[in-house]
Structure prediction request, 1122 residues.
Amino acid sequence: CGTTTPTVPLENYTAREIFQRGEFENARGKADQAAYYFGEVERLYPYSDLAKRALIMQAFSYHRDTDYDNSRAAAQRYIDFYPADEDAAYAQYLLALSYYDQIDEIGRDQGLTFQALQALRTVIEEYPDSEYAQSAILKFDLAFDHLAGKEMEVGRYYLRHKHYAAAVKRFRVVVEDFQTTTHTPEALHRLVEAYLSLGLTDEAQSAGAILGHNYQATEWYKDSYALLTGQGLETRASGDNWLSKIYRQVVRGEWL
Amino acid sequence: QSYSFSSVVIEGNRRVEDGTVLSYAGISRGQRVSGAELNDAYQNLVQSGLFESVELTPRGNTLVIEVVEQPTINIVNFEGNSRLNDEELAALVQSRSRRAYSPAQAERDAAAVTEAYIQQGRLSAIVSPKIIRRSDNRVDLVFEVFEGGNVEIERLSFVGNRVYSDRRLRRVLETKQAGLLRLLVQRDTYVSDRIEFDKQLLRDFYQSRGYVDFRTNSVSAEVTRERDGVFVTFNVVEGQQFKFGRISASTDIEGLDTLPFREEIRVRPGVVYSPLQIENTIERLERVALAQGQDFIRVEPQVTRNDRDLTLDVDFRLTRGPRVFVERIDIEGNTTTLDRVIRQQFRVVEGDPFNPREIRASAERIRALGFFSNADVNAREGSTADQVVIDVDVTEQPTGSLSFGANFSTSDGFGIVASLSERNFLGRGQLLNFSISTAEGNQRLAFSFAEPAFLGRDLRFGIGLSYRQTDNDDALYDTTRASIQPSFTFPVSENGRLQVRYTAAYSDLFGVDEDASVIIRNEARDGARWDSSLGYTYSYDTRRTGLNPNAGVLLRFGQNLGGLGGDTRFIETTASATAQTTVMNEEVTVSATIEGGALNYIDGDNSRVTDRYFMGPSVMRGFEPGGIGPRDADTDDALGGNLYAVARFEVQFPLGLPEEYGIAGGAFYDMGSLWDVGETYTADVLYDDFSLRQVVGLSLFWETPIGPLRFNWTEALAKEDEDEEQNFDLTISTQF
Amino acid sequence: CVAQYRNHGYVPADEALAAVNLGQSRASVIATLGSPTAAAPQDEDGIFYASSRVRHFGFLAPEIIDRQVVVISFGSSGGVSNVERFTLEDGRIVPLTRRVTDNTVRNTTFLRQLLGNLGRFDAGTILGEE
Prediction:
């Protein structure tokens, strides 16, 4: 059931004919076939002016077919051969997307997030005025936010297992290195929770103060305020009997 | 001197654009350029690997860059290779189709391929890259391979060995002497780094037998005139054999009592010295330190030689190691498994003292999950000198299998078979198995789910449902059986775990053949029956955490107490004890297992054929399922037994075949019996009481990609005349 | 049932703590006592060491039976201003909020995860091991 690449000999077709066949395949949604044809244009007629166009189309088609490795290889070849070309920005952007689109739920592998961040940074720095710089910056922030999410995930794991000191270390990393991300208010609230559990009230106060100063309107501040002023949330939210707790953790796989 | 160019002219480029050349050269129009910068531009252009030749000639105020482009590779292939196929060679080669051809890279590729052949022992292999010009400045890159003859070792001999013979030492080395199977065996070729490895093997061999001063002076290799064979001679000095002298444990840390440590030392004076024993003792002492909650304890053996009586005194000094902490535990590569499932396997937490042995134990637990084809855990320098970051790098492997199928058998009729089994459901480490088969004569439905970290604790919750209905006419009797079994398993001590479970089971016996045994016909009269029982199993397992790393004991004792509601009252007791160790410096594994079960019903109830034990080959080898045990004298039907006891003794040893075949041999001796059918309803029952069957057999273990297989050939030494033997079977070889 | 105990974290020994004198600089404190378990939110004003002993007993949730937290705070001049010790009793049982800042990346659908992980061709299924 894999993709069967056609075996018709393409040597005797002109570059234009093969290129158009590639565009035809793309139009009909057969991205992997299209990528194959664009690849053949580049292989058979590397010096035709179509070769450059075919190379970038090849990277695009592989990407559409979610075949990220080949898309990366084609994009890299484009950057090697035509670094000064106006499509080089798009090739670099495609290279970054090939990592970015594979970023998965926070609980899972974050190796790709690093590579996505590096590739996106090259797009932003080398092609600042290209049309892709803007969306690269946006995606850079999202990937950065995602990295902070991973730190939070590990922090919550330690918080839940009552290893408060380890949790404090992780949440401090988020507060210090990832201030611009959306996770900072939660990190500050978790610091309040962890410090109070350790009994360090004035550290909790200072964390709560930062939270109140910068993120007054968030739910997190409300929770911290309640904890710090002693009313404390009721120990168990409504509808949280042990059965719903088991359902949440075992069936839905949530953390608490 | 410096130049200023108002214009730059680029000639000779066809595929590479002017802009590209300029960007590599790093010179823009009208910029003041010094001689050095010109040279840099030249170097950049050459480094880009796009050009065969580059010339920069300033003419007045225009700079002319003449380039000759490298041709583009059309295809890359290999000719003349038989030992290594094209894919293997393509993986070694960097030049790829569609990239620019670079002669230097082609030379490097050729060298890589030649090296691969030398590793195979083909010393005289020659690989030369050739290019075939194609239209439009393209080339085909062909690697012409001449593999040359296989240089085999005709003779492997030793000089200076008094204690061990040449033959014995040849068995120690990796490199083999070319013998009868010279075509088959690949390791009889002369490869220099394998000879280095052999020196290490020789040293380990002698050292583990007490010859601490052993060394290999030289290894000489003369090539025969026809250059197709080599004579290899190892020139060794054995030295004297040393034994252990005084053994002691000492420390300079105040408040540390050395008594518990001394008790753990298993090395006795007078025993032949071996570094393995030292290493095992260090591991035991560090485990004792861990158990006492002492941090940063290092065990350093101080060895003092006394040459007069050829003994070595060993003092295990307990010292306070450097104060190092775990700063972070970073997990990568887990594309399916959730981070917490892996992090849970660590008993160490970020901020704890760094203990290498505990990290190794955690790595072992991660590998034991069975979700990863590779999991390496190593520590690297943290942000400060006294902090360390633990890097966990895993490679996932598929853990789910889904199978559909249809089967047809004359007795059971046509049926659909489907099964889904997933060991790492949704990456949460949960186990999920579901299988259904709808053959009209044999319907089966089974579902089981387990959550190993229930509510985040070291508490395994499991639930199993099964429904099985057999009704086909030529079987002796038909049954319907259904059961549901929730269970909880948790640790009760360092090596002990307890499982508590509840089982509700429904069984029905019907459609009994008229000429079946009178016992079965009577038992069918009760019809449907409900059993509901509470049960527990205590298991004590020291294989992984025990002090002796390569030996272990597994004790299991369990009972099911029936009568919590339900129709019958019974107590079922099962027990098993298995011990395993490795001997002959860890090459041969010896194991012994004793196993038994007793099913006794109380106040008037009695067991039925569906409840009783039938000893299958997994319990005692050499007999068909139901092949031994109580049997109706007239109808010859197997009735099963309420009591069984078995003892199995096994040994597993390497067959000397190279490891890559993954084949090992084994021998076993089983003895056991199945007896007591209980109520006999006036039937005449053969073998209703204890009678020992004995079986001896040979087995072959084979590590295949789909799992460890085991082939058994058995011969019964003592059996009853009506027993049904099974002389060969194929099973999965489970590590007890 | 036998309880198992695990120690986590690290707090400097009492004599080492006694050797810390007021006014001592932050760097020299860390040099003598070792890297702190964590620092307070603002870098300048304090570091702390924490160690805890956890009791694991059967199926019960792990229970912290002892915790030592030593906080060394620094004055505005950068020297040590106070050394405090907190124990388990000072800790409070804090209800943790279940809410999580959701991340923007869509995670793979249930089915794709389930089917994406297939391919383990296991001897068990072939031989029909029960």
